[in-house]
C-alpha cells in the first residue's frame, strides 16, 4: 500500500497536473519516442497527431492523482486500460520505460517545482499502479491462452472472405491458419490486428468483432478512414485492409479483449436497448445476434443513426432479422436522408438519435442500454441516461477516447 506521505504529495499535485497535463503528456510522448523508439508500434500515430492520445493520458494521470486515496472509484478505468494493454501485448518490461520517461518529463516540464519529494512520491505512485496493471494483465494473458481455442501473443489468420457492407465499410472474415477452433469471445469485444509498415516496423489497431461468438471465423467490419483535415494522412491500416489485403492473404491477430460486452446469462424482463451511430454499430451487431439467440422472449430495440443509406452497413441483414424475430424492433435515424430513401422509409426518420426519438420507440425508460458511436453521440446519450436516473448497472458503452470527456456535456 502507498504511505500517507506519498498520498498527500500526489494529491497536492493534482491541480498543477490539471493545469499542465497536456503539456506534460506531449513532452512525455516526444521524449519516449526519441529515447525508446522500440515502443512506438504500440501507439496509433493518428491519435498522436490529433492529440487524443495526449489528452487521454493527461486525463488518466489527473484522475489517478485526485483519487489516489480512493482507488476503488478507478476500478473500471483500470480494467479498460488492462484490457487495452493485453490486446496490444504490452508486457512488464515496458512499464519501466514509461515510468522513467514520465518522471523525467515531470522534471523537465515543471522545472524547480518538481522537487525530489514530488518525484519520489510519483515514482512510488507509478510503481504501485504499474503492479496493479501488470498483475491484472497477467491474468488476462493466462485466461486468453488457456481457454479452449485461445492463444498468447499474435496468431496468423487467413482472410477467407471480404464483403462490402457500404460505400465506406468492408467486412473481413478471418480464420486461423492452424485450422484450430476459435475461442468463445464475449459479444462486444474486439481483436487487435498487427500490420507491417513501410519502414519495416509494425503498427496495431483495435477492431470490434461484428458477428456473434461460436462461428468458425472472426468478422471485423472496417470503416475506411479518410483524412480528418487537410495535410493529415488517411487511416493507414483501414485503407490497407480495404485496398491491399485480399482473400487468401494472412494477417496477425491478438486474442479478443475488452471490458464492454453483453452477458447472455443475465436475464431481465426489462427491454434491451442498443443505440449506435456510424461505425459504432459493429460491437452492437455482435451483441444483437447473441441476444437474439439467447433472449428470445425479451424485447430488443436497436436504433442506428448514420448519414444516409450509402454509408449504412448491415441494413439488409437487420431488416431480415426484424422480419424473423418478433421481439426485435429496429429504427434507422438518418441525418441526411436522400430523396430516393424517403420512398423506402419504413422504420426510419430524419434527424439525430436523441431523447425524444428514444422515448417514442421504447415503452419506458427502465431498460438495459448499450451504446457506441462518435464522441458527441456518446456524450449526449450518456448524459441523457444520467438525467433519466438510469442505474449505472444498466448503462454499458464503448467510448474511444478519455472517459473524462464523457462528463463534459455537449452544448
TrEMBL record:
In the C-terminal section; belongs to the flavoprotein pyridine nucleotide cytochrome reductase family. Belongs to the globin family. Two-domain flavohemoproteins subfamily. Residues 1-138 form the Globin domain. Binds 1 FAD per subunit. Binds 1 heme b (iron(II)-protoporphyrin IX) group per subunit. The record marks 29 as: Involved in heme-bound ligand stabilization and O-O bond activation. CDD domains: FHb-globin_3 (cd14783), flavohem_like_fad_nad_binding (cd06184). GO terms for molecular function: FAD binding; heme binding; metal ion binding; nitric oxide dioxygenase NAD(P)H activity; oxygen binding; oxygen carrier activity. The active site is at residues 95, 137. Its cofactor is FAD; heme b. FAD binds at residues 190, 205-208, 399-402. It catalyses: 2 nitric oxide + NADH + 2 O2 = 2 nitrate + NAD(+) + H(+); 2 nitric oxide + NADPH + 2 O2 = 2 nitrate + NADP(+) + H(+). InterPro entries: Cbr1-like_FAD-bd_dom, FAD-bd_FR_type, FNR_nucleotide-bd, Globin, Globin-like_sf, Globin/Proto, Hmp, OxRdtase_FAD/NAD-bd. Its EC number is 1.14.12.17. Consists of two distinct domains; an N-terminal heme-containing oxygen-binding domain and a C-terminal reductase domain with binding sites for FAD and NAD(P)H. It holds the Pfam family Globin. Heme b binds at residue 85. This is Flavohemoprotein. Keywords: FAD, Flavoprotein, Heme, Iron, Metal-binding, NAD, NADP, Oxidoreductase, Oxygen transport, Transport. Residues 152-263 form the FAD-binding FR-type domain.
Amino acid at each position: 500500500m502507498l504511505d500517507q506521505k506519498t498520498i498527500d504529495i500526489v494529491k497536492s499535485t493534482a491541480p498543477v497536473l490539471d493545469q499542465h497535463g497536456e503539456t506534460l503528456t506531449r513532452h512525455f510522448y516526444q521524449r519516449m519516442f526519441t529515447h525508446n523508439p522500440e515502443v512506438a508500434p504500440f501507439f496509433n500515430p493518428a491519435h498522436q497527431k490529433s492529440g487524443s492520445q495526449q489528452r487521454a493520458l493527461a486525463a488518466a494521470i489527473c484522475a489517478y492523482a485526485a483519487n489516489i486515496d480512493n482507488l476503488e472509484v478507478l476500478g473500471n478505468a483500470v480494467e479498460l486500460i488492462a484490457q487495452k494493454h493485453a490486446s496490444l501485448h504490452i508486457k512488464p518490461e515496458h512499464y519501466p520505460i514509461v515510468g522513467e520517461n514520465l518522471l523525467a518529463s515531470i522534471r523537465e516540464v515543471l522545472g524547480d517545482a518538481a522537487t525530489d519529494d514530488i518525484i519520489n512520491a510519483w515514482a512510488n505512485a507509478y510503481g504501485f499502479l504499474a503492479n496493479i496493471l501488470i498483475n491484472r494483465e497477467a491474468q488476462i494473458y493466462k485466461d486468453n491462452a488457456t481457454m479452449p481455442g485461445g492463444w498468447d501473443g499474435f496468431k496468423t489468420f487467413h482472410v477467407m472472405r471480404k464483403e462490402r457492407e457500404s460505400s465506406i465499410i468492408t467486412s473481413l472474415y478471418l480464420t486461423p491458419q492452424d485450422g484450430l477452433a476459435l475461442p468463445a469471445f464475449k459479444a462486444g469485444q474486439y481483436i487487435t490486428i498487427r500490420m507491417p509498415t513501410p519502414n519495416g516496423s509494425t503498427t496495431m489497431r483495435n477492431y470490434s468483432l461484428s458477428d456473434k461468438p461460436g462461428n468458425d471465423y472472426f468478422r471485423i467490419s472496417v470503416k475506411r478512414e479518410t483524412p480528418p483535415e487537410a495535410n493529415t494522412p488517411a487511416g493507414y491500416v483501414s485503407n490497407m485492409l480495404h485496398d491491399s489485403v485480399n482473400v487468401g492473404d494472412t494477417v496477425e491477430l491478438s486474442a479478443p479483449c475488452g471490458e464492454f460486452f453483453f452477458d447472455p446469462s443475465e436475464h431481465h424482463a426489462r427491454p434491451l436497448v442498443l443505440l449506435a451511430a456510424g461505425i459504432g454499430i459493429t460491437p452492437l451487431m455482435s451483441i444483437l445476434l447473441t441476444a437474439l439467440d439467447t433472449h428470445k422472449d425479451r424485447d430488443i430495440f436497436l436504433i442506428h443513426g448514420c448519414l444516409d443509406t450509402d454509408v449504412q452497413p448491415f441494413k439488409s441483414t437487420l431488416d431480415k432479422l426484424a422480419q424473423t424475430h418478433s421481439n426485435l424492433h429496429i429504427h434507422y435515424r438518418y441525418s441526411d436522408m436522400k430523396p430516393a430513401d424517403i420512398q423506402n422509409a419504413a422504420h426510419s426518420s430524419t434527424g439525430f438519435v436523441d431523447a425524444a426519438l428514444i422515448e417514442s420507440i421504447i415503452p419506458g425508460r427502465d431498460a438495459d442500454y448499450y451504446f457506441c458511436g462518435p464522441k458527441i453521440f456518446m456524450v449526449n446519450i450518456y448524459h441523457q441516461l444520467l438525467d433519466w436516473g438510469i442505474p449505472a448497472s444498466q448503462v454499458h458503452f464503448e467510448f474511444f477516447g478519455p472517459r473524462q470527456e464523457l462528463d463534459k456535456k455537449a452544448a
